[in-house]
Amino acid sequence: MAVYTLAMFAHIIEWTFGSKGAVAVRSAEQSGLAATVAAAEDTAKGVRKVTVKVASASGGTTTLTRTALADAGATVVTSGRGDEDAADGPGAAGTSERGDLAGRIAVSLTVLGALLHAGGVLTRGLSVMRWPWGNMYEFSCAFALMMVAAYLGLLAAKKNVRWLGLPVITAGLLTLGIAVTVLYTESEQLVPALHSYWLAIHVSTAIMCGGAFYAAAVATVLYLGKEAYERRLAAGTTKARSGSVWGRLPAAGTLDKLSYRINAVVFPLWTFTIIAGAIWAEAAWGKYWEWDPKETWSFITWVAYAAYLHARATAGWRGRKAAYLALLAFACWLFNYYGVNIFVTGKHSYAGV
């Protein structure tokens, strides 16, 4: 937690320096706004940009962009960039070299903290020679680790997601703080129902899903803020400011796609988690499904994420409606973890608090 705290402060310094070194961001935003205004003026005059493909001398095709009068009977393909193709911001550090240095230090500290964190989870399991997620304290420690691991995994995949560092590290610290102060229990052996290899399979996948769902939820919340910022810029109700936090984030379309892709990739794993739990329940209690509170809320969470993905894929939902549905699904996951485990009694009452 101490190392994570240092990483959090390094990310704060990164964002602070970025607010002083993002003059280029303001120029880019003003240029983009000017291009939008110019396009609107052309449309008002009955003029539009069109792209056509023509044969080239080499036997291939060449794409040409021309200005043409709008014709109600013509079929035109516009060459303008859509909302999803808007330019991304430069990141938390803006154009500040010192901010970038602080960000790289923060990532290094995060890697060190994750290694120490993994060591803590491992030694907890070794203390009683079992998988270290038999109660809420142990699950919370593993959940926080997966938050950080999901973030570092995106970085390792060469994704420009360093802006995720501050919310991820902050949430990880809060999760660990609650685990240590409220949920802590001594190392002890498991209840008989948990003595199964399915503990490693079922609970491990649930932990991985939780970390990834959290990363997607952060991207969704930031999307809502960024999308509102872009709308205000387009409407002229706000001005592009040097060093704006929203201006340094990726475009709203980029954040929306990132959230969708994470949820789409993780959803099959969550499906497997529920199936594995049902198989384990049959082995432990003789029935695959008994509508236990944990089972019920796991299924509700599955339905919520399925509705989100279905709306995106078939109903064409984009933007704020889909984002609200994604956040509702993540809220179901959080309640399934904290609410059901602490406040509801059932066969899955292994909180230890």
Automatic annotation (TrEMBL):
UniProt keyword Transmembrane, yes or no: yes
Annotated ranges, domain Cytochrome c assembly protein: 133-344
Cellular location(s): Membrane
Keyword flag Membrane: yes
GO biological process, one term: cytochrome complex assembly
Main location: membrane
Source superkingdom: Bacteria
MF (Gene Ontology): heme binding
Entry keywords, A to Z: Cytochrome c-type biogenesis, Membrane, Transmembrane, Transmembrane helix
GO cellular component labels: plasma membrane
Residue spans crossing the bilayer: 105-124, 136-157, 164-185, 197-224, 265-285, 297-315, 322-340
PANTHER family reported for this sequence: CYTOCHROME B_B6 PROTEIN-RELATED, HEME EXPORTER PROTEIN C
Record-given protein name: C-type cytochrome biogenesis protein CcsB
Source lineage: Bacteria, Bacillati, Actinomycetota, Actinomycetes, Kitasatosporales
